[in-house]
Automatic annotation (TrEMBL):
Residue ranges constituting the Reverse transcriptase zinc-binding domain according to the UniProt record: 251-331
Name of the protein this chain belongs to: Zf-RVT domain-containing protein
Pfam families in the record: zf-RVT
InterPro entries: RVT-Znf
Length: 334
């Protein structure tokens, strides 16, 4: 080794080093390896903290700038959970308080903030789900590196969204390709089904289809069930093709995120807030109202901040959101 170093004129380095802004590691990625990502977020925030930004202004900066800082990392590593939590804590604190990582409670739960606008959120992507959306599929072996194993453990999530156009079936593994509505025959019935069928491990889908009909072995109940399950699938000509979610749809990180994120019921007030030519400040205020998130007097009394929960405009009623916006005589005139 020393002779090589002498000939080339290089000095011997030590991992961890950074290349193109990210850490190069051979072992499990830890929180300290991602320190530069957290520092980048805090550095960018520091340049904004002196500005008097509205909620909507901070939301715009999060969507356009802060989120882009960790996209490159998300496409390179499966980030440690602790790092994702720290990044989300920084972004959450900046949105609600205009500060970096502080331990305060926001007006609306972060899980609701990270929903799509149609689902009642602000459209901020959940970092853990977005991280998963950037990776996909191959077999996991014990010889794989930690980083590669973390990527490949996501294969089951994405395989369910693949649509196989089987065609002649000559190049598709009968057992190990997810051609059966996004599932592997082996994962559905276990390895025993392969031995019960009497077919070899490397058999293709075409082997059980002949003369325009499926010809599965009927040795067990599992094989009979599989035969019934595939009767609606017809083979054709040419090599198979794989589509994402539906035929003709292009693969993208956004489409993966849409497929794997937690779905929630649509809210009936989304179009009242997020409409063409909407005013950001007004829309954000209305969004808070729909989530009953304004710090009205009834809430401040429960928090022990004030002694009375009566309306600040002197009408004598309890100040809750419905009263403040729709029932108060003073605000009604305004």
């Amino acid at each position: 080794k020393q002779n090589i170093l002498d000939i080339l004129g290089f000095s011997e380095g030590k991992l961890t080093i950074r290349y193109l802004g990210i850490a190069l590691v051979v072992s499990k990625l830890c929180q300290s390896d991602c320190k530069v990502l957290v520092e980048s977020l805090m550095k960018r925030l520091t340049s904004w903290l002196c500005n008097s930004l509205s909620f909507r202004g901070r939301l715009q900066l999060i969507s356009s700038t802060l989120f882009s800082l960790h996209v490159f990392w998300c496409r390179t590593f499966i980030l440690p959970v602790a790092v994702i939590k720290q990044c989300e804590s920084i972004i959450r604190s900046f949105l609600w308080f205009g500060l970096g990582d502080v331990r305060k409670v926001g007006k609306v739960a972060w899980s609701k903030v990270c929903r799509s606008k149609a689902d009642g959120g602000l459209g901020i992507k959940n970092l853990r789900t977005w991280n998963k959306a950037n990776f996909w599929v191959v077999c996991v072996t014990s010889q794989c590196s930690w980083h590669w194993r973390k990527i490949l453990h996501l294969k089951e999530v994405l395989a369910m969204r693949l649509v196989f156009e089987i065609r002649d079936g000559h190049n598709l593994s009968l057992w190990y390709d997810p051609w059966l509505q996004g599932q592997y025959v082996i994962s559905m019935y276990g390895y025993r089904v392969r031995f019960d069928s009497g077919l070899p491990w490397n058999v293709t889908v075409a082997a059980v289809f002949s003369n325009g009909a499926w010809n599965w072995p009927m040795n067990t109940c599992e094989l009979q069930e599989t035969s019934s399950f595939v009767q609606s699938i017809q083979l054709g000509q040419g090599s198979y093709s794989i589509h994402w979610v539906s035929k003709g749809q292009r693969y993208s990180c956004n489409s993966v995120w849409e497929a794997i994120r937690c779905s929630h019921p649509k809210v009936n007030w989304a179009n009242l807030i997020w409409f063409p030519n909407w005013i950001p400040k007004h829309s954000f205020c209305m969004w808070l109202s729909c989530h009953y998130a304004h710090r009205t007097m009834d809430k401040l009394q429960r928090f022990g901040v004030v002694g009375s929960n009566r309306c600040i405009f002197g009408c004598g009623n309890v100040e809750i959101i419905d009263h403040l916006f729709f029932g108060c005589r003073f605000t009604g005139v305004v």
